[in-house]
């Protein structure tokens, strides 16, 4: 998945679940700058961070990354 598509999905799920960037970043233990750059598609997230984001937002890793099953 391209960074831009992943960025849009992370942002969409975050907003759907009612989190601000600040709230989600705090839950994840990362800075707002890290989360913001991920949501802009300027930073590539590692698998561990993506798993943490998915878990925190209550979705599966595959849902977050749009992985085909």
Question: What is the radius of gyration?
Answer: 11 Å
Tell how many strands the DSSP assignment holds.
Answer: 0
Report the structural category: mainly alpha
SSE pattern, N- to C-terminal: HHHHH
What is the first-to-last residue Cα distance? 14 Å
Number of domains: 1
CATH class descriptor: Mainly Alpha
Shape: globular
Q: Name the CATH superfamily classification.
A: lambda repressor-like DNA-binding domains
Helix count, DSSP H or I runs of 4 or more residues: 5
Low-pLDDT segments: none
Structure description:
The chain contains 5 helices and no strands. The chain is mostly helical and 69 residues long. The chain has a single domain (3-64), classed as lambda repressor-like DNA-binding domains (434 Repressor (Amino-terminal Domain), Orthogonal Bundle), CATH 1.10.260.40. The protein starts with a helix and ends with a helix.
Layout of helices and strands:
Blueprint: H1 3-16, H2 21-28, H3 32-40, H4 47-57, H5 61-65
Short description:
With 69 residues, this protein is mostly helical. The protein is built from five helices and no strands.
Question: Which descriptors apply to this entry?
Answer:
single chain, 69 residues, 434 Repressor (Amino-terminal Domain), 68% helix, globular
């Amino acid at each position: 998945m391209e960074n831009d598509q992943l960025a849009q999905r992370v942002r969409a799920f975050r907003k759907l679940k009612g989190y601000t960037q600040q709230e989600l970043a705090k839950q994840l233990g990362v800075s707002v700058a890290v989360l913001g750059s991920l949501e802009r598609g300027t930073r590539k997230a590692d698998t561990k961070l993506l798993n943490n984001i998915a878990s925190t937002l209550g979705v599966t890793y595959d849902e977050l990354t749009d992985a085909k099953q």
